[in-house]
Hints:
globular; Pseudouridine synthase; alpha+beta; four-stranded antiparallel sheet; Structural Genomics Hypothetical 15.5 Kd Protein In mrcA-pckA Intergenic Region, Chain A; 3 domains
Amino acid sequence: MKNFLVEKGEENNRIDRYLVLKAEELSRVAIQRLIEEEKILVNGKKTKPSYKVQENDKITVEEEKPKEIELKAQDIPIEVIYEDSDMIVVNKPKGMVVHPANGNPDGTLVNAIMSICKDSLSGIGGEIRPGIVHRIDKDTSGILMIAKNDKTHINLSEQIKNHEVKKTYIALVRGMVKENEATINMPIGRSTRDRKKMAVTQKGKEAITHFKVIERFPRHNCTLLEVKIETGRTHQIRVHLSQIGYPIIGDTTYSNGKNEWGIQGQCLHAKSLQFSHPITGKQMLLEAKFPSYFQKIWEQLKND
């Protein structure tokens, strides 16, 4: 059960809008459904989504228990870039979700990794996310590292937290990027207009993205970029590049998604990771080869 007390200056907002800002994990649609199911009460009484909150209103939200998801190993082909007794690094294909969730109970990277690693995965990520140290979006391809034991998981997580893991991406964006290289330093948080999206907002968390131009393609009005991130905010690269006027081609969330190649999903590839091996301390630089669709587009652009 979560409780909220409406403070002075917060009154006269619709309750669904008020709770969207207060309960970040809930979407407006979910809030409206909970109101209909009488799982959200105002001063102990049922309410309506259109109710305008008043100062000192006491709002209670009955939290939903997550549905149990049966986690199973599945023999799904996945390219292994590196593997030892402590960790495994793979090249995640575009369109694959990293871990199971409601709506994606199987067919995920975790299901594939369980088939490869059997029982040797870190338990820190929980039952649904064993070994998962970091993630990339469903429609982003590329390199991901997974921990096989808790010591490895803790070490890699600390390296990420301390910005010691160097992440490099390749992105194809719409528009002719003017700068040869630049840094985007804009905070990112949940969008107040659409809870499924992220946005640049002053109330967000620090987000820093560096990019440099690899090649410009005037005939197709697009630019190929190398992108490095200091922080790992949700949708960071996609939000930042869209914000400065260069959305990633194929991204249906932060651009109109239209592209002459008919690509479903953004042209964004996690190319490489540089980090210290969590056990030996050896410096590691691993790369994931480009998916065939991205490689074909790049070759066509160069030939044109």
